[in-house]
Amino acid sequence: MVSAMPNKLFRCVRRGTAGFTLVEALIAGALLALLICGAVTAMTQLNRSATAARLRTIALAVAQQRIDQIETTAWQDWATRPAILAVDVSGTRTTTENNVPLNNDNYNAATSLISPYTNLDAQVLSTRTTVITNVPPRSLRAVVTVTFTYRNRLMTITLNTLRTTDSI
Fold it and tell me: Are 143 and 163 in contact (CB under 8 A)?
């Protein structure tokens, strides 16, 4: 005897109602590729900005180091002026230090944490200029400028301080 009921297991599904067409898949892939390209571009720009900020911070620390040295050097009015605070007969002295490294990772080298990725950045060298000027009586003005180039941009950090003798 033959059953009059259709077999539900072998029921045909109409074409075009299940799955994605090739055009839909290509459009989805193109949108995904655009999204990934945008994310990679954003990450690259963030990395550049973070590196520039790190270099500015280190340059600020290099300038502050010299300001601290000027401010903490003992200077008695009755004694000879220390060499770091000395000026010439015009009342001004300019000292320039070239090739001051900004992005050396001395901590990693000192603690043996060196890896193949430690020195991937190009070394950034700076110039530190210190100008000491007499400001009578028994005072001086110090201007410390650190200049460096990163990604073909000249960047400058300048700090000023006034200093008097330790004795009144």
Answer: no
Domain that holds residue 129: 22-164
CA distance 108 to 121: 14
Q: What is the pTM of this model?
A: 0.73
In a domain, 9, yes or no: no
Helix (H) or strand (E) holding 159: strand 153-164
Query: Which residues on neighbouring strands pair with residue 126, listed in sequence order?
Result: 100, 148
Helices (H), 73-134: 106-110
pLDDT in tens, 8-34: 555 555 555 667 788 999 999 999 999
Specify if 12 maps to a domain. Answer: no
Q: Is residue 3 part of a domain?
A: no
Residue 112, pLDDT score: 59
CA dist 102 and 132 (Å) reads 23
| Tokens coding 135 | 């400001």
Domains identified in the chain, total number: 1
Cβ neighbours for 135, distance < 8 A, ≥ 6 positions apart: 141, 162
Q: Is 16 inside any structural domain?
A: no
Structure tokens at 96: 């320039």
